[in-house]
Amino acid sequence: MKKKVFAVVLAAVCAFALTACGEKKEEPAASSSAASEAASVVSEASSAVSEASSAAEEVAVMTYDEYMAAALDTKVCVETYVQAKQSWWQDTASVYCQSPDEGGYFLYGLACTEEQFNTDLEVGHKIRVTGFKSEWSGEVEIIDATYEPIPDDIYYANPMDLTDFLGTDELIDYQNIMVSFTDLTVADKGDGAAFLYKWDGSGVQGDDLYFDVTDSKGNTYSFTVESYLCGADTEVYKTVENLKVGDVIDCTGFLYWYEGPNPHITSVVVQ
Fold first, then answer.
1. Which of 2, 24, 173, 252 is the most buried (most CB within 10 A)?
2. What is the number of structural domains in the chain?
3. 195-220: per-residue pLDDT in tens?
4. Res 19 pLDDT > 90
5. What's this model's pTM, rounded to 2 decimal places?
6. Domain with 70 in it
7. Which of 147, 22, 92, 96 is nearest to 264 (CA)?
8. In terms of domains, do 227 and 212 share one?
């Protein structure tokens, strides 16, 4: 009997010992150095993802046709040449640009300091522009843009005579380029006036000038001397102030668009 009890006790002790020997020891906590290395890896991975995301948002330089085919409100990038500086205000500028054998661009809200406006954006200088394609009352433009100067490359556009395109659907294809119109007759703007200060005559000297012209087909169009582009002290402004109804004139400017053609005139020659 004693042997039997001893055997049972001995078996229980062995079982307990085997169980204890089979238990897995708890692993020590990761060292602070290892934790730091892991955090560094995570940070580097996050940075790489961020850089990849930024690269994906970059836009390749477009041709004019690619720019025109782009959807409104999408990011665009073009290389072009400054042809006229319309205005600068609170670190943004409005600028007309054009490229050889391609179309024109109107940059609205181009980010630049006053110093950059007076140096980098001189007429003829080449720039790379990145912004968003937009439209306002028919005028296609690049807004909220930034630029990079491209030195040692100069281009001055010559005006394209679009007199025969007045009144046609094709005229809009030349939007924002430097254009000329010839043999136009100054029309009555109202009460025998050849021009108005502001579109409705409510302005004063120094405001935009509006005048109407009639082509050889008898169609009448409204032209503008944009005061920010050509102020009251410029030759074109003074010339328009001295126009008379019936004068025959030649005009040069930029084909701006506002509910139809509304050229911003920079030169008027009375025949």
1. 252
2. 2
3. 999 999 999 999 999 999 999 999 99
4. no
5. 0.79
6. 64-154
7. 96
8. yes
